[in-house]
Structure to design on (555 residues):
């Protein structure tokens, strides 16, 4: 190769002033000017001078006057404003001005002293100012607020979320928020007054986190999706505040963790309800209450007594709960749960999560339940009653517990607690429950007459005046069923009304015979001839004073 071919090109001479304009005398890389990024649809907060080292960096480090700072960061209000906050807010504004796009926050810890606000986006399908916000991981990209902004203030906010057209299309991903509380809160202790994520309609959140706030996620709006969200060590992990009249429901939560909170994993304002939600494989526990309705003045304008409605919980873990799974904080109780399905969900108590300022009365403690389906409770050995009952509900309509019902009755009997608290039952509201053990029996709650002995499992029950039940006799009173879970006079027993494998008390007798109501709650073989009255069922096995029958079989 010739010498000419190996000759080097002249090295460009860089002016030191240009370097300082791009890097800055403090060594932090930033653009030659904020104006250079105008029109960009992809902006990193580092491009605007964000530091992200977890330390205090006020604008006064770089600007001698507020006017100079506002030329780059129009949202700035003081030279004490954090550079990390100002750069993030400026990046959002730049992307919005370009018609929408993405703000990047690389891994680091960014300090903020004000709310980060996002612009609205028009209705689905229309071009708008959809601003996405991406980090590098919910525990890698962290935004921290060392100062509490106060009540009804949020760390990140969609400001017009209660407006009729307050829509915020877009994605928040891989961002973690840390509130002003210095330590994890103890049960019943409010860690901070400000909230974390101030949610607006139609946005999507994935792999984000919030901790050390009053509420990690404050939800107003509809048509939203949450995936792999972690909200823990707050007062409430999720909060449904006073709602928008225009945007409501249709929320999907997948594989989220709402745990370790001082009061409730999910809480509902007195004027709101948790409605139109689907939760799949979510963890909702590690707190005094899993789902709680806040107390409000009776009859106050705008109050909504519904706590939970039109929602589905599939394979969710209500684990390490201190005081109740479903709790109405009103006194007297008046909250309503309606049209809700709990399918293959797990529940377990924990003394570590218990708040001593309130009782642990029951797993569900509320006023009314309507059209509730509790299907296949998961790992029922852990589903123990509270200090008073398994369920404390005054009224019910068309509710059912299907699967592992025998295990639940066994747990209650072992703990010497009723399955349904009799003191809360009004009129015949206990009849609104259907209990079923697939393949074994189907039944209901039955109120035991006051003037009768206690009933025990295996008793044949007959109807008593006033729709009550009592131990069967050989008299003409119709058969009410077979006792599965006993109760004292005035208590609520569980009575099976149909099923292929019921055990009843019976004097020694033959198998393969019809049994009819006998004396003192027993069943006895039907007469060989003549009409049979008050048939209990067909016995296909009998030994030691017990018979196994197909209950409800004709004869």
């Amino acid at each position: 190769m010739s010498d000419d071919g190996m000759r080097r090109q002249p090295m460009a001479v860089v002016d030191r002033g240009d370097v300082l304009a791009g890097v800055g005398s403090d060594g932090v890389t930033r653009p030659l000017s904020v104006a250079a990024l105008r029109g960009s649809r992809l902006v990193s907060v580092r491009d605007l001078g964000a530091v992200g080292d977890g330390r205090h960096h006020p604008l006064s480090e770089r600007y001698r006057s507020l006017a100079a700072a506002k030329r780059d960061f129009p949202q700035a209000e003081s030279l004490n404003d954090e550079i990390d906050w100002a750069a993030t807010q400026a990046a959002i504004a730049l992307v919005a001005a370009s018609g929408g796009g993405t703000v990047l926050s690389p891994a680091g810890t960014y300090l903020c002293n004000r709310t980060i606000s996002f612009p609205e986006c028009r209705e689905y399908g229309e071009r708008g100012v959809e601003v996405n916000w991406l980090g590098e991981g919910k525990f890698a990209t962290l935004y921290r607020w060392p100062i509490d902004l106060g009540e009804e203030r949020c760390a990140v906010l969609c400001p017009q979320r209660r407006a009729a057209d307050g829509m915020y299309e877009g994605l928040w991903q891989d961002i973690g928020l840390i509130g002003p509380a210095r330590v994890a809160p103890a049960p019943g202790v409010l860690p901070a007054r400000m909230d974390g994520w101030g949610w607006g309609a139609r946005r999507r959140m994935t792999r984000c986190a919030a901790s050390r706030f009053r509420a990690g996620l404050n939800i107003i709006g509809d048509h939203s999706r949450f995936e792999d969200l972690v909200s823990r060590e707050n007062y409430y992990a999720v909060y449904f505040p006073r709602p928008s009249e225009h945007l409501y429901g249709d929320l999907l939560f997948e594989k989220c963790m709402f745990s370790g909170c001082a009061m409730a994993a999910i809480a509902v304002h007195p004027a709101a309800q948790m409605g139109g939600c689907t939760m799949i494989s979510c963890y909702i526990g590690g707190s005094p209450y899993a789902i709680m309705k806040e107390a409000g003045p009776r009859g106050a304008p705008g109050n909504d007594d519904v706590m939970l409605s039109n929602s589905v919980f599939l394979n969710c873990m209500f684990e390490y709960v201190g005081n109740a799974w479903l709790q109405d904080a009103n006194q007297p109780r008046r909250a309503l749960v309606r049209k809700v399905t709990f399918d293959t969900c797990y529940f377990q108590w924990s003394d570590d999560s218990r708040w001593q300022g309130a009782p642990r009365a029951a797993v569900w403690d509320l006023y009314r339940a309507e059209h509730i389906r509790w299907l296949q409770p998961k790992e029922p050995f852990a589903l123990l009653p509270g200090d008073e009952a398994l369920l404390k509900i005054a009224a019910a309509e068309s509710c059912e517990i299907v699967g592992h019902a025998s295990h639940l009755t066994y747990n209650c009997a072992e703990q010497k607690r009723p399955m349904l608290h009799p003191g809360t039952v009004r009129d015949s509201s206990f009849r609104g429950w259907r209990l079923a053990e697939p393949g074994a029996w189907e039944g209901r709650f039955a109120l035991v007459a006051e003037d009768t002995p206690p009933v025990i499992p295996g008793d044949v029950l007959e109807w008593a005046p006033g729709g009550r039940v009592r131990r069967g006799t050989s008299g003409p009173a119709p058969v009410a069923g077979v006792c599965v879970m006993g109760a004292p006079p005035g208590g609520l027993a569980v009575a099976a009304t149909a099923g292929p494998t019921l055990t009843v008390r019976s004097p020694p007798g033959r198998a393969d015979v019809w049994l009819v109501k006998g004396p003192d709650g027993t069943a006895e073989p039907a007469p060989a001839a003549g009409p049979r009255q008050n048939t209990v069922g067909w016995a296909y096995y009998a030994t030691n004073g017990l018979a196994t029958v197909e209950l409800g079989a004709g004869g």
